[in-house]
């Protein structure tokens, strides 16, 4: 399952990221924010635009907005 498939309010752990599916600068930014293997996240909400972009992801005490395309590159599991 990928992060973009998680329902709002649900928690998950990132188990793998397809870094090759992302532009190098985007991958670097996501890693710097802590969105990497082992991170425990929750989906706060999704945008209202076509494709539900952006998604609000809670990581620790921080809320991060990411694109659905970024979330599709992240394999997750439910705790």
UniProtKB/TrEMBL annotation:
InterPro entries: Fe-transptr_FeoA-like, FeoA_core_dom, Transcriptional_repressor_C. It comes from the Bacteria. SUPFAM superfamilies: C-terminal domain of transcriptional repressors (SSF50037). Pfam families: FeoA (PF04023). Gene3D superfamilies: 2.30.30.90. Keywords: Iron. Transmembrane segments: none annotated. GO terms for molecular function: transition metal ion binding. Residues 1-78 form the Ferrous iron transporter FeoA-like domain. This is Ferrous iron transport protein A. It comes from Aurantiacibacter xanthus.
